Amino acid sequence: MTEASGPVPILQPGVGAIPGDHYVAATPATVLWGRLPCATDAAVLEISSGESVTFDTVSHEGILDDQGKDPRAYFATHGVPAEEVLDDAVEIAASVARDPFADGPHVVVGPVHVRGAHPGDLLKITVETLAPRVPYGVISNRHGKGALVGELPRGEHNVSVFAAVSERDGVLHGTLPIVDGGEPVVAFPLAPFLGTMGVAVAAEERPHSVPPGPNGGNIDINLLVEGTTLFLPVQVEGALAYVGDPHFAQGDGEVALTALEASLRATLRFEVIPADAARAAFGEVTGPLVRTPEYLVPTGMDPDLDAAMRACVRASLALIEGRWGMAEHLAYAYLSAATDFDISQVVDIVSGVHARIREADFAGVAAVEPEAMASESASASGSASVPEGDTP
Q1: Measured between alpha carbons, how far is 227 from 135 in angstroms, rounded to an integer?
Q2: What pLDDT is attached to residue 376?
Q3: Quick one: residue 178, left, alpha or beta (phi over 0 = left, psi -120 to 50 = alpha)?
Q4: Fewer CB within 10 Å, N side or C side of the chain?
């Protein structure tokens, strides 16, 4: 039986470091299970532009109906003691409503109202810290989904693979055996990120949690590790931002359906980029835009992977012209010669492609940086609130 004990402390709700200006625990009052926030949803927290929030996120793996909706019992079969199972995961599985036939699997925390965010602005979300909450995770191929639909899983409705975390040469790794029941001799480094970061849609119906879109959501871009930024076009007043679908590691494509899914404590900083400043820096941004220390990363999404690729190329051309003023035919040539287009995922109904445009290649071209609106102090606009019981 696989032991879960490892180098990661168990971050139960409110336990351990909480570095953000605010804290939102995952409770029945602060989460949606299988749906994303919409324009009519009430915020669980209100903040000023420039403030940070620490979220406890909960993985859906181990709490789903086909896993018994009892995470203590499910993880016990893999040698995880009850005290190493997250209390909030247990509570959500037992008490949060979800239709397994109509809703997605993801647990989403939020939404957060960011003062001063208006439709047409960009919400800048900086990933400051991502701390594993447990020393294990799960990778699943279920319900005839994944890249090899009809081939895998073989004779099984649901294959979920447990992966313990170990430390090797000072680096956390996920581990797998070569055969069922074997020693976990295969190891791959962790690179935690949130698969879901988004803003509410301008509609009165909550979207399904699986397909991503212009509002972000389940974009599953594994570049969004600590120190990176996501820009999202604001759809509703206050943005109503949310997070979820925590990952310990994911390969581009996410071919089996899920990656190494596991709960994270995420600290994110939220800033509003006014519409004029956003256009001056990037041109018209109509979908998620990622920024890493090295790359600007526009995205393309469509149920058809070829169409998603074309959408990403168009978004890349628009970004290069809007930011650096490069003529379209020259930008097209540059993309062909110098830019990698990666498959974000092919398993979320809407496929995703993202481009990695090296900013250093344009170091000789003047560009405007996206300037956030002046932040107001919390005392000047009323103290931000956290639902009762969410403050450690």
Answers
A1: 22
A2: 62
A3: alpha
A4: N
